[in-house]
Amino acid sequence: MIKGLSISPGIGIGKIYKLGGMQVDILERTISEEEIPGEMKRLEEALDKAKEELKELVLKSREKIGKEEAQIFEAHLLILEDPSLTDKITQKIKGEKKNASWAVKEAVEEVARTFEALEDEYFRARAVDIRDIGGRLINFLESGHRRTGEIPPGSVVAAKELTPSETASFSAEIIRGILTEKGGPTSHAAIVARALGIPAISSLPGLMDKVNDGDIVVLDGTEGVVYLNPSEELILEFEEKRKKLKQQQELLIWGGPAATKDGKRVELAANIRDPREAKAAIKQGAEGIGLFRTEFLFINREQPPSEEEQFETYREVLKLMEGRPVVVRTLDIGGDKPLPYLDLAQEENPFLGLRGIRLTLKYRDLFKTQLKALLRASLYGNLKIMYPMVASIEEVREAKKILEEAKNEVNKWAPVEIGIMIETPAAALSADILAREVDFFSIGTNDLTQYTLAVDRGNEEVTALYDPYHPAILRLIYTTVEAAHKFNKWVGLCGELGGEVTAAALLVGLGLDEISMSPIFIPQVKQAILHLSYEEARKLALKALELPSGQAVRELLYAGTKGY
Amino acid sequence: MVSKEAVLLNEAGLHARPAALFVQEAKKFKSKIIVHKGDKQADAKSILGIISLAVTKGTSIVITAEGEDEKEAVETLVGLINSKFGEGMKND
User: Fold this and answer.
1) Which residues, in sequence order, are bridge partners of residue A18?
2) What is the structure's pLDDT at A7?
3) Chain B residues touching A309 at Cβ < 8 A
4) Which candidate, A422, A510, A432, A527, places its Cα nearest to that of A469?
5) Which chain B residues in 22-81 lie under 8 Å from chain A, judged by CB atoms?
6) Is B83 an 8 Å CB contact of chain A?
7) Angle, alpha carbons A315-A320-A321 (nearest 5°)
8) What is the pLDDT of residue A235?
9) What values do phi and psi take at B75, rounded to 5?
10) How many CA atoms within 13 Å lie on the side-chain side of A251?
11) A377-418: per-residue pLDDT in tens?
């Protein structure tokens, strides 16, 4: 048994599948005349395998993702079959007498560079595809190096560390669990694992040396415990546990909405980052989407997404949610994640810089395009638009002005509620002023905690000071909720705090109308709420507001949450 | 030998995915097919060649084919371009 850090709850049983890093050092080697046929044969085999893999990817993408995505892999397949690439590789092996991996790398770089020299942005970007293809070939030439595309069903993935895009390519149907040597519970990879409902444990030093491909493992993501080569009895025991958990969840999910014993309703919604996660949200019983982060549409690309592309994405989510509320947050980005198509200055302190609504008010065309796409999509469901990082009323008024302009440029739209994130202390403290301007609030506790306590949660020196249970944060939440209700506006919460069972009584007691969280936490929070009495939760919350420290609040809550 | 001019109407031009469709169609014919853009040219059956031509929206190209099915080849490829590569092709 090894103990790690729980980063995504649930029980997983499966076979270890070790995933290598994506970087491989390719060494240049001059080969002898006799070696040429061998290297050529290796190349042919790698080409065949890569084509085979791409054909599977084409079929899989067509089925699971879409026709257009499948065409990308069809293009890759054609490139592998293109003599202008293969001749270059062959020439380097036969003519220059280089080893196959080096020949592939060099040939690919040559082609990629000619693409990069093209004038048009679209065409320049194709260099990435060429390099991706090269990587695929090299994977097959350098054995032992694998990619995520070929993981067999029933696997527990073991890796040193995972990137968010690697995690995002996983699906809960295929992957039973994730074990990593590094990566904390607030990493993006962890957030994705929770959103997809895959149990995960990190902080397992030396893991890669301890496990082999095919080893059976049992992992308890809730407790953060891994059992290597477990006994038959243990497997059976956890199999039972897993089934029981699943049944409990299903009962909860389909047993009706979340309400306290004394009948106070709290809407449980999901935080998502793309349409795929909306499906996971429905599976987990979400009553709506409380936070749809739209950044994925804007990052990792050379040009901003078109109105059409955005419209289709928003419409897809709205349609999937079948009339349930969907709160879409407009682009929330800053100088820490520069976009190639925006000319953002280097900032000394990007978290206090041009980000969130400040940025979109500066880049009005970008903002208006997003608003137009949203307005058009509003016809397909229950859309609400939310602006991030608001600190003052002028920002809200300005954004509303641009929204009106957008309406004039769009044919048809449905009535849309407008709300703001409460994530700066300024917004929380002036909530009674802002409430007159908007239809709803959503409290972003991650940033609100960071800004209120002046703690960068990514900075290890001070991360221990980051505490959303700090009385200052609770008082800001309380102030915000009271202000919203005074003006008959609804108020939700969409930080990580929303997914914590410990916080459920507190948040219900503070009077939140909606709590939005990673889909995977919905059943456990729902279970907690079903056991609560609103009257008692209210007393508990008011008491918490008077406590001297986050630690004291926690102790009060632990005492109150015993029993489930 | 048969030649015909076509103007790219779809947003992305002969970009990766449309280029793939174009090359897949071209490969169905036995004729040798060349795409000319200004003074540059590329083999219609080579996707890398086609992409390196960087044919953007509004650009005019000339397709030339030589062989037993030359007429059909040119007609089919010009038709594909005029149809904006079929329905449902999104901006990319």
Assistant:
1) A158
2) 85
3) 90-91
4) A510
5) 23-24, 43, 46-49, 51-52, 54, 56
6) no
7) 100
8) 94
9) -60, -45
10) 8
11) 999 999 999 999 999 999 999 999 999 999 999 999 999 999
Write the CB contacts of A235 (distance below 8 Å, at least 6 apart in sequence): A13, A216, A218
B12 reaches A (C-beta below 8 A): yes
How many percent of chain A have pLDDT more than 70? 92
Residues in chain A within 8 Å Cβ distance of B13: 120, 122
What does the alpha-carbon distance between residue A443 and residue A498 come to, in Å, rounded to a whole number? 10
Distance CA A167, CA A276 (A): 13
**Contact in structure between A476 and A432 (CB atoms under 8 Å):** no
Q: Catalytic residue among B6, B8, B12, B15, which?
A: B15
Q: What is the pLDDT of residues A56-111, one digit of tens each?
A: 878 876 776 566 667 777 888 999 999 989 999 999 999 999 999 999 999 999 99
The pair of structure tokens assigned to A148 is 């995520």
Which domains are delineated in chain B? 2-82 (3.30.1340.10)
Tell me the ipTM for this assembly.
0.83
Structure tokens at A280: 């996971």
Check residue B69 and give its pLDDT. 94
Residue A188 predicted with pLDDT over 70: no
* B12 to A122: CB separation less than 8 angstroms, yes or no: yes
Question: Do the Cβ atoms of A79 and B12 come within 8 Å?
Answer: no
**Are B48 and A111 within 8 A, CB to CB?**
yes
Contact A381, A320 (CB under 8 A): no
DSSP string computed for A436-461: TT-SEEEE-HHHHHHHHHT--TT-TT
Residues of A in contact with B43 (CB under 8 A): 84
- Each residue of B11-64: pLDDT tens digit? 778 877 788 889 999 999 999 999 999 888 999 999 999 988 988 888 899 999
Residues of B in contact with A75 (CB under 8 A): 16-17, 19-20, 47
Contact A268, A287 (CB under 8 A): yes
Neighbours of A456 (CB within 10 A): 15
- Note whether B91 contacts A: Cβ–Cβ < 8 A: yes
Structural domains in chain A plus CATH codes? 2-18+151-247 (3.50.30.10), 33-141 (1.10.274.10), 261-561 (3.20.20.60)
Closest CA to A188 of A458, A523, A387: A458
Could B15 and A126 be called an inter-chain contact, meaning their C-beta atoms sit closer than 8 Å?
yes
